[in-house]
Amino acid sequence: MPAGQGDGGGLLPNEASTGASRAKCTPSLSACENWTLYEYETVTSTNLVAARLPAWSAVRADLQTAGRGRFQRSWVSDRGGLWLSAVLPSGATPGWRALPLVVGLAVCRALQGLGVNRLRMRWPNDVLVADRKLAGLLLDQFFPGSVVAGIGINVRNNPAAADPALAGRVVTLAELIPQPPNLRALTRAVLTELRRVVEPMQDSGLSLLLPEINRLWGESREVELDLDGPLRRGRFAGVDEQGRLLLGTGPGAEAFFPHEVRHLTEL
Fold it and tell me: What would the CATH number be for the domain defined by 13-213?
């Protein structure tokens, strides 16, 4: 099952090179929608393989043997799903803290273009249909100047077969639309939307994208935040231009960056 945004610490460079060295085959290399795409049969983690690549490079694998979610949780990456990592340029302006949300927006746009309905985002790293998880993100910054965005989308895979605890909690594209695209076509759709959202952000920050991002949260809802120990309850009111979660409205509202929140539970 796809899961999570990284906790911001990233991995050491030698770990990144280990991931690349354990790729099980020579990649297929091609141009794809103004990206350089490396495709493997099996890797430990597409994020690790992508770690040393330049911006606008991407890595896709049929299978990950050591996929990671947020806070090093296991990321089920069975055959038939899309396991993709895209290397994005990163900047120093406050809006770049919201990059996980911008990547989520690109994934939602690509899925909507395929006819998927009832999509919503769950802050900061999940894409749901109703209450079932369809896609997730893991962002790692291995080196200054770029960010690796790991994207997992359930397509024709069967996550519950790998982990029975996922039964009833996940959904696949094959369950949602009559003819899901092949993985190459889905890769192309996602990479296209990523450039469409990231390039304008380089010029104008998050302001132009923020209304669309906030619409994808759906209605306001009560949530509980685990701040790595302390708990906060309140009404989720969307995100601001720095990508912070807003709990409550008005003068008493609290704001939290993604790395401050270990887990969000919708009540």
Answer: 3.30.930.10
Query: For the domain bounded by 219-266, which CATH number is listed?
Result: 2.30.30
What are the structure tokens assigned to 68, written together? Answer: 């990671």
Residue type at 156 in one-letter notation: R
Q: What is the pLDDT of residues 210-259, one digit of tens each?
A: 999 999 987 778 999 999 888 999 999 988 888 889 998 778 889 998 77
Residue 74 has pLDDT above 70, yes or no: no
Give SS3 for 19.
helix
Strands (E), the chain: 28-32, 35-43, 57-64, 82-89, 119-122, 126-129, 132-140, 146-153, 221-226, 231-239, 245-247, 254-256, 263-266
- Give just the sign of the alpha carbon dihedral 250, 96, 261, 154: positive
pTM of the model: 0.86
Backbone angles phi and psi of 96, in degrees to 5: -70, -15
- 162 compared with 145, residue with greater pLDDT: 145
CB 205 within 8 A of CB 101: no
Q: What angle do CA 57, 58, 64 make, to 5 degrees?
A: 150
At residue 11, the pLDDT reads 30
Where, residue-wise, is CATH 2.30.30 in the chain? 219-266
